[in-house]
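Batch job 17 of 40 flagged for manual review because the log was empty.
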Amino acid sequence: MRKVASTISPLVAVEKGSPHSLQAQIYTAFRHAIVGGSLAAGQRVPSTRVLAAELRISRMPVMNAYAQLLAEGYFESRVGSGTVVARQLGAALAAAAAPAPAGNGAPPPAARNPAARRQVSARCAALPTADNFHPRRYQGAFTVSQIAFEHFPLAVWRRLATRQLRGLGPNALDYGDPMGLRELREAIAAYLRTARGVRCEPRQVMIVSGSQQGLEIAARALLDPGDQVWLEDPGYRFAHSVFLGSGCRVVPVPVDADGLDVRAGARRCPAARAVLVTPSHQYPLGVTMSATRRLQLLDWAESSGGWIIEDDFDSEFRYAGVPITSLQGLDRHDRVVYIGTFSKVLFPALRIGYLVVPPDLVERFLAARFAFDLGPATFAQAVLADFVAEGHFARHIRRMRPVYNERRGALIASLRRRLGEAVEIVGDQAGIHLAAVVPGCPDRAIYARAIQEQLTLVPLSIFHLGPNPRQGFVLGFGSVTPAQIAAGVARLAELLQDSA
């Protein structure tokens, strides 16, 4: 039952069933009243005996609360004068609440505005907000980076997770290996050597929280503020944010049908410290970097001392021939840092990716990680290690290729039927998205209209860093059925017609 002291109600109230002790409730009530201005400096408060009687509780918690308030300087007590709110608090509380004085020597109005003083770093202020054209803000056709959730073997995953839980011992509650679970790193290294042609050993594999964190660690380990970095143009927007946040200078390098134009990059900035590329399935255009360009890029890195960061985000799904061999597998001078993720091939909520680090840089990358992250969570790693080791991962990839291929075919057919020669389809040979280039269309304006109808048309122009961006849309087809695809393309055609 709630008890309230009648003499100073409602400043002090206690509840005997509360999880907080009576002493804590009394202390908190007085402190809030003083800081909030309900009790003024010098104002007398009831004696411990009177307040205990009013609240109908023992005197002891009241005495303990008063002792704490006295010790912290909220109360003061003098013999014969009782207990009062500390008089010296008056000036301090008034100064904290009052605006700065005007007149000679006064700060400008902006400085007197509390909001204006809440400054963040220049690097943080330069970053785009997360909800500007965020690909997962709206669900439905054609959300990018979403998988066919209904086809994931959830029953198998639950069984493996349950088995791990049953075998959980006290040691599992401690910090894990900062490089990641050994069993998972061994499974990833074996998979990458076989399926992607990556040259690596388990000791080079670092488990990270998705490819975005892998990119952040690579930037911290390899780059200093002011360093110049080549980025594909158009390219992955959130990578741009990582390098801006690291204080680097971004140099846009054009992408054509053969991938990153290495010669153009060398002309624009021959002394770049690093380059980020998506050679197997470029994001967002989906093109594959040619063998000639790959060799040119490796030669540039070796001759200039630059680093290549290879983001191999969804190379498992290729619909014409076998997956393209990694760029890292061609590297003979250890200039490539390889990044991969399970988010696009299993499910985004897993948040597990990996780095393959050149052998002599492993310790430095580990030091960079320790600066902000002591290591990855272990439980999901253990489940994933079993999922890979027992063959479920390989089987899932084989099952999903025809599913995504059907959806890809449905999207291409619908675009051809509805838009004909008005659209150029790019990057449809791999992955779970393609680019629909529509010259002259106001893609950002159409995007704004489409989101009202749960149609996720990520505008192609936002991926460009340089002038004269291509107009069109990046369309994900992983999470939509052929019927939903047909309906979505029909609505896209209507939006394009309305904007003409």
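Reviewer: the log was empty due to a logging misconfiguration, but the result itself is present. The chain is about 40% helix and 15% strand. Unflagging and moving on to job 18.
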